[in-house]
Amino acid sequence: MxxxxxxxxxxxxxxxxxxxxxxxxxxxxxDESPSEPAEDTTPPEVVDHYPAxxxxxxxxxxxxxxxxxxxxxEESVTGNMTISPPFGYITSWDGDVLxxxxxxxxxxxxxxxxTIDETSKDLNGNDLGADYxxxxxxxxxxxxxxxTVLSTSPGSDEQDVPPLQSIEVRFSEPMNLTSAENSVDIDxxxxxxxxxxxxxxxxxNHGIFPQDSLITVTIQTTATDLAGNPLAAPYTWSFRxxxxxxxxxxxxxxxxxGATGVTTSLNTVxxxxxxxxxxxxxMPASNLDARFAQAMGEMENPxxxxxxxxxxxxxxxxxxxxxxxxxxxxxxTDLAGNIIDPDPTDYEFTTTGTVSYFPIQNNYIWHYFxxxxxxxxxxxxxxxxxxxNFDVVLEEEVSPDVWxxxxxxxxxxxxxxxxxxxRDEYDDGxxxxxxxxxEPIPYLKLPIGDHAGDSWDFATFALLxxxxxxxxxxIEGTVEIDYPTVDLLADYDPLYGTFRGCYVHHLYxxxxxxxxxxxxxxDSFHEITWLSPGAGPVRIVQDNGPGDSxxxxxxxxxx
Length: 559
Known about the structure:
Number of helices: 4
Largest sheet: 13 strands, antiparallel
Radius of gyration: 31 Å
Number of domains: 4
Strand content: over 45%
Helix content: under 10%
């Protein structure tokens, strides 16, 4: 595990942006296809480590390292590693070497066993195959030597330092993290966003320094090692920031800005800026396509070492006929704090195919948060392209990972409309009966853009199952499609961004319930649905009157 300050909101926003793009190859194809490399099926190995297996009298502030014979899936190694008896530590990687740095002085005369789990994998997914154990025993001696600062970056008297370059301090031995972090004094004070540790190196990430200014950093004697020994004297050095008044710009993109016909199987986008950028820039939800956000997957920092290039990957297929977009606004700067030119810089591309505001295919799934804090899911099944018939199943999570069917809609799509044919009723997940409209309800007219601003009335009835205590239901109502389209903000976890260009669909209905020809009850409803291009129904509000409404907000889909 790693130790860092948690002030990472800006970086989190950037990661959100960084995970929602995708594209194909950045360079052209060769005339000849190279032969495919041989598949790697060889298990990785541990080739060296410190302390040695069975070592005794090991220093109690030992810096442990384990070397593999190839690059490893780092999370598979550190996530499954165990230490017995346990002690606090941080991990970092230097190529194929895993460094384990204790965060407290180890107990004297204690035998520790580090187990690298058999499921640890290389980058090709090959398991280690067997647990690898490293056992050592600590000595009895104490640590009475004061720590020292071995090196810094920027160095003393260094010139032309970018105003956002992080400050690194390498100590001679493992440090008490809190004491070292609290010992930092910087003049002028830029504000510290977070601090990372890589072994004995403290990386200080900070706000923007003024340009062409002398910056003085002091590590005070309150910084102590694991045994509590302080620095013998304050460590002070200075450097000067550069002068940079040139605004950065987006130099090149893949797919190119404004590209059309982009494949929906896109999986990598590359954005190259004219100079090193501040990787922690803020991306408000209003500046990010929520469909990009949904397409994101887990990934590491997408910036290259020079901070000029973002390489972004997609884990989900893009939606057909959709324009994906992102806006780089005033919070996007270079390392000197110069705002991107132009401000804002818009980036977009459009996928191939025809956009749908109500995509229909078997096994399409939408996941929603419910305003009452539970989750709901809607999915399509029994779709037959020849007839246009399909069902929408509505399920609710009644307990963790336990789902119950609430109802099933029966619908039909033809070239000009989607018809609501009827529904199946459920109680506690148990089927109760089917209700079929005498005349189908014209739920949505197609294409929806041709009917923006339109409304149409309907009236029909259905026989009810005996279990309902009534024998028929009469309904009259109106369907409306608002004009113009609207943008819908999604600023909740795990979805973050904006659905641009949503059509708002209104379904109004007045219900009358009958038993043997006698009116026994009435009701009314107003359902509002935001239909996003490509993603379909992304928000649904059931308005039952003043103070009585339910909201479903989409947080993911599988289309």
